């Protein structure tokens, strides 16, 4: 054991649909340890505690030596998808009870006569109207009926059994006084009741999206509060005395308080960490244009990282009826890392479609239980991991570093009975078909994502990670015509690494609609100053030094009459009419980048004002992840294995120990590189080199 001292170790924990990943970093001891174990779906905190206990034991540390734990979770997403959240009541302006049901009045599929819409989080019986009205300019047209608020709250809680209440009044983004007073009345009646005010959750124009976000926040708030309290108390029971921080969907680290007050901001908590890890790798390697490719057990995530920063967006759809169909979910106004998710992971199941007779892969997944057939936990349908094992890409005796043995015999039987019997394709051909389908699915989605942004994949480098990412990265890059793939050390748990390198950060937003020439600059500056003060207080609570916090102001602007706006960087935190030429120029530059043309004579208006607040993130020397005994391993391959490649047949591949490869080591494909949590496939004709940061850099022919 290390001697007791000031706690310096930090642990990142990513709870995924199949595996829970962990990374421990102790800069004082130049120590990095990684871990991966199956997620416990019934109670994710069980895998968290078991994983932390094991990784501390392997590092020779105690819970008292841990400075902080940074956690990301898919619990918010799962709660909305599965509709297992709280019973929520909604108080809204008289006459606007059905706003969240009417929505945008658009159809995500024009020709589907039996179109299914997402189930509402708040049924009509739990939506009550309150006499009050504020105009778009902030004037009070009808005072708040406080007695009606109290009566409605009693009806929702005592008669309807509401466990949380959302309040969404018209134009509260501009003048929140009625919402604030309603919240005070409800808290006076029910002090412990979770309350979500739309003016606090999403203070932005457009009442449908704002109220939808407030309802979603209320829907998950009780469950997330209980979960986070349970994780915190369970960690404390082990002797942990440090801080528990949470990853936001936008890629920043925040406090437990913000996570409990605004859990909807955690909707993409886990996936965001992978993008932050890719940005960190890009900074280390000096890469300006990167495609982040994170393939885990349930899904694959793609994100563009330009100039070493992941792209962001400020809206998200949750709980889609058709998982990858835009417009089929609940709209949320939250800051998220801009990425696509594809139902293509190691656990994605292969089947024969009864209508067409064609083989389909995903989006249905085997998850952690029962998992793929090869796990031996009761799975009967072949999954992508089963195909990878059958094709020779995985070593059945070295999965998770040998902790979990994979069984090949039932995999052959599953392919024979469920695929070969239906199609007549041989078992090995069927496994190759699974790989082809899943890789083409990911390639097609990535091409579309890049095309929508006007990007050429040939100009990008792929950073591949996740348990299944390095297995499929070479072939996916080949399909996309990407010439270089970077696989970091510890790729199988890189999302957890993202928690440790992500900065304390948050995004603030306020709406104020006006034409540029008519802006009230005092009001704009007051909005920016208020957001700066709020952001500084929050990040200071999260452990950031106030003098190291940076602020990036942005305005969402459009031509008058347009339906949607674009983000435009602002020249400073204090603005005046003298800044108008610079703001107009920035708008035209952003507009041209997106639409390839500008209309300079058309008037411009601003709608919302944003402030991104961030402190510097952490840095990790991944050389500390190499086991001390690795230097004793021979530099050559430790084994050989036959692998089936499409178009090349079965090829003999040297199998290299990832930890034994020194900086500067060069490999020629076909070859396999194995580490504890993942295997990297280097295909025929490709070459690979270990760079100065221990990344495995693969160059395609």
UniProtKB/TrEMBL annotation:
Gene3D superfamilies: 3.30.420.40
InterPro entries listed in its UniProt record: ACX-like_C, ATPase_NBD, Hydant_A_N, Hydantoinase_A, Oxoprolinase-like
Pfam families (UniProt xref): Hydant_A_C, Hydant_A_N, Hydantoinase_A
Domain Hydantoinase A/oxoprolinase intervals: 210-505
Residue span, Hydantoinase/oxoprolinase N-terminal domain: 10-187
Acetophenone carboxylase-like C-terminal domain boundaries: 539-695
Name this protein carries in UniProt: Hydantoinase/oxoprolinase family protein
Biological source species: Belnapia mucosa
Lineage, uppermost ranks: Bacteria, Pseudomonadati, Pseudomonadota, Alphaproteobacteria, Acetobacterales
